[in-house]
Inverse folding.
């Protein structure tokens, strides 16, 4: 099978590596020759490291590299059977590229976007044959992350959806089918991991190190929310949050943080800039908490007074967890995806230690409802409204998984 990848950045290069490793012929397109050369060199470096780790041998490296070619004209993608776009998250730019691309490819070519939050239906509308368009959302780094969200638009034919699912599964990926709504599964459900942690910080309840430690030590998350935002990039993470917030008609559950906005504006983007919530050395290792993110100890709310360190950590973890569970439950309530796909998405897409709906079963649905109601009683904000599904399940004494 011949695969086209539009964009030779980290994500585009990663997708190309996945497809080439699976035995597909891949053409990577970029308008800039220097970008294509960077992609080629980066792949060589990655494959050499895999040889050092004993994951592949020299023959496999040569096979993967021989499967990938680099082109700088969309016309060179004319013989591709599936083309995946992985460029800047700008709807108008994507639509322009798709419209031009359609003039070069056959009527049977599947044209897909790797967008993380934009409307697939809007992107598809730029095509004469919108039924061929679909979302195929990989997670970074694409070669390592098992999950791929497949997002049919309202225009997408069932035949295209089924074909894409089979292709992605043949690449040894786990597929989660998601409805074409803002953020799909992962970028919707994961918002509270960042947003509620930022809210706790902005209230002055704890500094970023304490919040990160609480989620890692009590929850088993591999990275704390602030470490992860620095890893993703504050500019990227803020943009996704802002996009989801606007797309949901300014629902307060997805409200962006001024703290992250100001860091992004200041160029404190995280690891890639050497400074974010933390300061980093040249190897992207944390040196210290960024002094600019230390809250005034006198600003702490009364809610933290009388808490021991252990109690405060438990409060932070419970608050973030229940907001995540609520978001996952609401995604199921609105038929964004199945319960199995939601849990798979969070464990295999962003490495959560447990599926959130399974976590809800373990904690107890009544525990979730009570925690959310208590938060709402304190803040009286729609941000903390309990999902109707959780409330109904509590009344009926049900679980997500039997």
């Amino acid at each position: 099978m011949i695969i086209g990848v539009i964009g030779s950045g980290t994500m585009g290069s990663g997708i190309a590596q996945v497809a080439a490793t699976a035995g597909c012929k891949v053409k990577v397109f970029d308008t800039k020759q220097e970008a294509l050369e960077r992609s080629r060199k980066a792949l060589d470096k990655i494959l050499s490291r895999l040889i050092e780790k004993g994951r592949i041998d020299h023959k496999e490296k040569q096979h993967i590299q021989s499967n990938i070619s680099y082109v700088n004209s969309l016309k060179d993608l004319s013989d591709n059977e599936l083309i995946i776009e992985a460029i800047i998250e700008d709807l108008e730019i994507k639509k322009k590229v798709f419209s031009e691309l359609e003039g070069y490819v056959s009527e049977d070519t599947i044209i897909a976007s790797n967008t993380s939050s934009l409307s697939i239906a809007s992107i598809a509308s730029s095509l004469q044959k919108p039924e061929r368009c679909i979302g195929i959302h990989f997670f970074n780094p694409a070669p390592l992350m098992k999950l791929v969200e497949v997002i049919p638009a309202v225009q997408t034919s069932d035949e295209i959806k089924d074909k894409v699912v089979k292709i992605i599964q043949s690449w040894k990926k786990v597929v989660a089918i998601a409805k074409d709504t803002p953020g799909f599964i992962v970028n919707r459900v994961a918002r509270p991991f960042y947003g509620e942690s930022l809210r706790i910080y902005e209230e002055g309840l704890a500094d970023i190190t304490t919040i990160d430690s609480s989620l890692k030590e009590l929850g088993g998350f591999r990275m704390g929310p602030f470490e992860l935002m620095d890893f993703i990039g504050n500019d990227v993470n803020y943009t996704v949050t802002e996009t989801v917030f606007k797309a949901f008609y300014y629902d307060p559950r997805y409200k962006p943080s001024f703290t992250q906005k100001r860091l992004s504006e200041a160029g404190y983007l995280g690891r890639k800039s050497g400074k974010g919530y933390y300061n980093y050395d040249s190897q992207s290792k944390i040196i210290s908490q960024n002094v600019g993110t230390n809250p005034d100890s006198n600003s702490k709310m009364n809610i933290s007074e009388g808490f021991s360190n252990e109690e405060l950590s438990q409060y932070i973890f419970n608050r973030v967890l229940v907001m995540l569970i609520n978001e996952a439950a609401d995604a199921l309530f609105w038929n964004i995806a199945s319960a199995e796909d939601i849990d798979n998405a969070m464990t295999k897409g962003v490495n959560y230690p447990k599926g959130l709906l399974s976590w809800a079963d373990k904690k107890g649905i009544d525990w979730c409802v009570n925690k959310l109601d208590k938060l709402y009683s304190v803040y009286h904000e729609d941000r903390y409204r309990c999902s109707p599904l959780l409330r109904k399940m509590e009344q009926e004494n049900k679980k997500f998984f039997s």
Q: What stands out?
A: The longest strand covers residues 133-138. The beta strands are 2-6, 25-29, 68-71, 82-85, 110-113, 133-138, 147-152, 174-177, 278-280, 286-289. DSSP finds 17 helices and ten strands in the chain.
